[in-house]
User: What shape does this take?
Amino acid sequence: MIYQRMKDMVEVLCDFSQKREPGRDRQEYLQLLKQDLAAYYSYNQYLIDKLCELFTLTELLDFLEANEVHRPITIRTNTLKTRRRDLAQALINRGVNLDPLGKWSKTRPDHL
Assistant: This one.
């Protein structure tokens, strides 16, 4: 319910002259949106205010949604101390599931 209200407010704020309710000003919509963002994403009001200064409203929603996605845990091999293969084998022996690093990385191939 809060999420839909946030989306609706962003839509109104992006085309404020056409979609606003009569008698309500932009600041009122913006303040309500910031309160909803803080509650929905569990951020404090100060951080939401600062993020609103950095991003447009649609970028802000995309940014906050992206922060909710769990990132994979990655490790990098210190090749001065061990080889990638040796570290991988030691981790596998301890029950760790390893996947090779994607091609997007600019690290050398001997890194996990």
Observations:
- The mean pLDDT is 86.
- The two ends are 42 Å apart (CA to CA).
